Amino acid sequence: SVAKELSSYSGTVTMTTPGPAFDASTASGKRVMLAAYTAANPALNEADTTFQAALQHEGLTVDLCDGKGTPTGDNACFQQGLSEHAAAIEAQGSSPTTYSTILSAAKQAKVPILEGADSDPLTTPLTKGLAANAGPPWKLVGKLMADWVLEESHAKDAHILYETIPDVDGAAQEHAQFVATIKKYCSTCTITTKGITVADWATQVGPATSSALQANPSIDYVVPGFDPMINFAGPAVQQLGKAGQVKFVTSGGSFEEMAQMAKGTLIYADVGIDSPALGYLQADQVLRAITGATQKKGLAPPVKVFTRTNVGSITLSQSNAENG
Fold first, then answer.
1. Spatial separation of the C-alpha atoms in residues 40 and 305, rounded to whole Å
2. Element (H, E) at 5
3. Is 273 exposed, middle or buried (0-12, 13-18, 19+ CB in 10 A)?
4. Which strands, in side-by-side order, build the sheet including 61-66?
5. How many CB atoms lie within 10 A of CB 239?
6. Distance (Å, whole) CA 115 – CA 168
7. Tens of pLDDT along 156-180?
8. pTM of structure
9. Which region, left, alpha or beta, applies to residue 212 given φ > 0 means left and ψ of -120 to 50 means alpha?
10. Rounded to an integer, what distance in angstroms lies between the CA atom of residue 186 and that of residue 163?
């Protein structure tokens, strides 16, 4: 079943449409706040780009605010949106618990807040007070990463270092599903977990990787929850001389990491998430929230398993990454 699931997500994938067509013309001229939890994640940048392009196409203005991966910065973005009388606020990548105190003020101001790129929209109930949620299907992503490890290790004796992101709900859901899948099919597999918040990636991912590999020399798989973390985990593996021993498996499908995999550098599998498609889905939800059109809740972009075997079948470029 693991091999079959991997195969089904390694070919052509399609996106579920967000719902029936509607007239968005009454949203023209409105201003929207895009509150990005961090601009350090290229996958979110890809979603942000198409989100802005779609709304600008419909005559709206989009203000992008970078929370820099901290709750304080994130809340400042929401406050800015309210002070500027935004017609809607898109919460890109932050947990609803981070901006829970803003919800009542937004409700009073009649400003819809939409959750994006955080919790799994297919399996997580919509948080009370939010208008809609579009994001990656995190549990599926975690399961597919585990499937690859299981198939590659023949479901036997794999020692995995999993690096999760505790301040992102979706990362926790991805991690939980990964662990559950490994435990279900491999009784002799071992998982060591490290948690590094987004704001600490640059300073903590490398040392956490090094210390784990030194303490557990048998680790043969490193699984960063999001592929930009490899920018910091990769050098740690190379400095320890374990580049040929340790295999990276990750998620996101960011251009830099996909290019590394195509060159045969460190990365063996990356569960790609169509981030540009996510931006379009989020824009659709925002327009529906502003105009009062019927909202289809729980939208997720397509995901696809890329490996060293099939990555050569696509043309890798920055422009292709940005348009999906």
1. 23
2. helix 2-8
3. buried
4. 61-66, 31-36, 88-92, 113-116, 132-134
5. 13
6. 12
7. 999 999 999 999 999 999 999 999 9
8. 0.96
9. alpha
10. 19
